[in-house]
């Protein structure tokens, strides 16, 4: 029997044409979904509620998020004691009085809810610019989410502990019309950090006036590779500036040290060690176990294995160590928030080992310490640490060196997770690198690198809504899989592409097709990785979710058919 074809009333472009009215009715006016669907019928809107739920998630219009934003906004207003504050939700500025009107319709008070420690995703807030002749724009103060005693072991010895963690930088320029808001970051936990870590003192950082010529990422998160050619604008948040200055300097000092003391001294190092890959996979699996609520014994055993592996994996002579730690932290921050405290403990253990083996003044220790401090504002700090390494290593080694490619790959992954506009730039640069390497070597390793970056570019296109371009890239990458000599690498490459295909079909609202892709990916993941691998667990979660939606649609279709037959 021919498979049932699913009806899709609108293309992606048509959905975008309805987005403004849909957002206004559903998010701003707070109407129920069925009311929104009926009100939009007159404008040619033909989708049902199931289709709408997909785009509600894609556009981040959930009612829960609205309530969360209103609780957070009211709590911020109460703490600021009447000071003028502008809120912006998903690009739209909240009208004056909207927060008060919202709470006037609710039986509860904002004080009835627990304090929200972090700014909800998509919400921004700031103090408006002053009138001419007034003072400089004020940075929104952050709430104290970590104790000074804890932070003191991660801060430079010549500065007092701020009650802020890692605010985003607001750039103050003459005549500026928009000012980026600061945000409340997650608490920094240092459980498991050794006494040696607590006694360690960071070298003093220069003040902002002493670092002309050093680029620091602004709140817009636009990170540019030619950071040394830029000068600083006057800024009003010296603590946040100096945090990034310190990270940037640590990255530059470490990679300069590595070039001079390791690479030019021809000290042996192996950036493709199987132990590194084993540590990475075990870290991802630990995060998946915690996120999927596996047994406590299973989690603890994996954690203890990771702690034991750190001494065999993390070496100061190997820059892959830095890439490895940042990659693991980025995955945890973005995809496994429940696992973040455990991942931080592993990082604490690695830092204490670095202190014991290298000493507190070694560039590798400084950079690892900067990474640990970056846990509260990870993507900004990680990019600060890596950018100097990319440029320094590209000049000292050559643009085709595999270590340079690994740094570029990390920048791409950081950009994807943080939705940075520079991700495409780094991805194209990395694609040229991988293509040149493959044409020269014609090996499975070179082909796998080319396939991996094709998957990243596909994900970037998909996240931008460029579904046709993403599908074309997947077809090209799929055509190259037959060139693999290693069957395992071929199957792994196919599994990566099927996972991206499932994401794409899900975004388009083709849930049956998405389920088929996820099922095929799960079958290959079980074959290549096994049951406990993070890739298998992640794909299995998507299979369950897609199956639930498809079953709901099937029941809805069956009920509609019965009603239609009864009416005849």
UniProtKB/TrEMBL annotation:
Position of the signal peptide: none
Domain Clr5: start-end pairs: 12-63
Name of the featured protein: Clr5 domain-containing protein
Organism: Exophiala aquamarina CBS 119918
């Amino acid at each position: 029997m021919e498979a049932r074809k699913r009806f899709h009333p609108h293309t992606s472009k048509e959905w975008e044409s309805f987005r403004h009215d849909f957002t206004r009715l559903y998010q701003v006016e707070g109407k129920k979904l069925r009311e929104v669907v009926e009100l939009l019928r007159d404008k040619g809107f033909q989708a049902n509620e199931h289709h709408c739920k997909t785009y509600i998630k894609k556009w981040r219009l959930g009612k829960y998020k609205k309530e969360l934003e209103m609780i957070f906004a009211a709590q911020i207003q109460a703490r600021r004691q009447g000071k003028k504050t502008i809120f912006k939700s998903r690009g739209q500025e909240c009208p004056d009085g909207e927060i008060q009107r919202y709470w006037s319709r609710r039986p509860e008070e904002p004080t009835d809810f627990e304090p929200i420690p972090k700014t909800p995703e998509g919400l921004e807030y700031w103090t408006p610019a002053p009138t001419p002749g007034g003072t400089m724009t004020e940075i929104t103060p952050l709430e104290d989410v970590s104790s000074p005693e804890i932070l003191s072991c991660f801060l430079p010895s010549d500065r007092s502990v701020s009650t802020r963690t890692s605010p985003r930088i607001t750039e103050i320029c003459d005549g500026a019309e928009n000012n980026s808001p600061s945000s409340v970051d997650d608490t920094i936990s240092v459980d498991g950090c050794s006494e040696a870590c607590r006694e360690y003192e960071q070298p003093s950082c220069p003040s902002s006036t002493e670092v002309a010529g050093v680029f620091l990422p602004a709140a817009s998160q636009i990170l540019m590779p030619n950071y040394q050619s830029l000068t600083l604008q006057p800024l009003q948040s010296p603590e946040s500036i100096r945090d990034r200055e310190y990270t940037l300097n640590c990255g530059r000092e470490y990679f300069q040290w590595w070039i001079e003391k390791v690479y030019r001294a021809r000290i042996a190092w192996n950036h493709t060690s199987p132990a590194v890959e084993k540590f990475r996979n075990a870290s991802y699996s630990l995060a998946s176990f915690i996120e999927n609520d596996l047994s406590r014994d299973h989690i603890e055993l994996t954690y203890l294995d990771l702690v034991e592996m750190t001494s065999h994996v993390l070496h100061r002579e190997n820059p892959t160590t830095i890439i490895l730690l940042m990659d693991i932290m980025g995955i945890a921050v973005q995809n496994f928030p429940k696992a973040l405290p455990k991942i931080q403990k592993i990082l604490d253990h690695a830092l204490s080992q670095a202190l014991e083996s290298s000493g507190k003044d070694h560039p590798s220790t400084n950079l690892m310490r900067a990474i640990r401090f970056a846990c509260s504002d990870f993507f900004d700090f990680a990019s600060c640490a890596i950018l100097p390494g990319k440029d320094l290593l590209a000049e000292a080694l050559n643009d085709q060196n595999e270590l340079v490619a690994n740094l570029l790959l990390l920048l791409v992954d950081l950009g994807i997770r943080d939705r940075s506009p520079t991700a495409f730039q780094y991805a194209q640069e990395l694609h040229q690198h991988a293509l040149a390497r493959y044409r020269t070597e014609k090996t499975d390793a070179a082909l796998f690198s080319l396939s991996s970056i094709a998957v990243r570019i596909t994900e970037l296109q998909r996240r931008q809504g460029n579904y046709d371009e993403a599908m074309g890239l997947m077809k090209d990458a799929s055509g190259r899989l037959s060139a693999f000599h290693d069957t395992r690498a071929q199957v792994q490459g196919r599994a990566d592409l099927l996972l991206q295909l499932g994401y794409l079909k899900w975004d388009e609202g083709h849930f049956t097709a998405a389920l088929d892709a996820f099922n095929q990916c799960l079958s290959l993941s079980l074959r290549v990785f096994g049951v406990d691998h993070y890739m298998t667990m992640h794909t299995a979660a998507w299979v369950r979710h897609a199956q639930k939606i498809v079953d709901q649609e099937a029941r809805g279709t069956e009920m509609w058919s019965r009603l239609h037959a009864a009416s005849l």
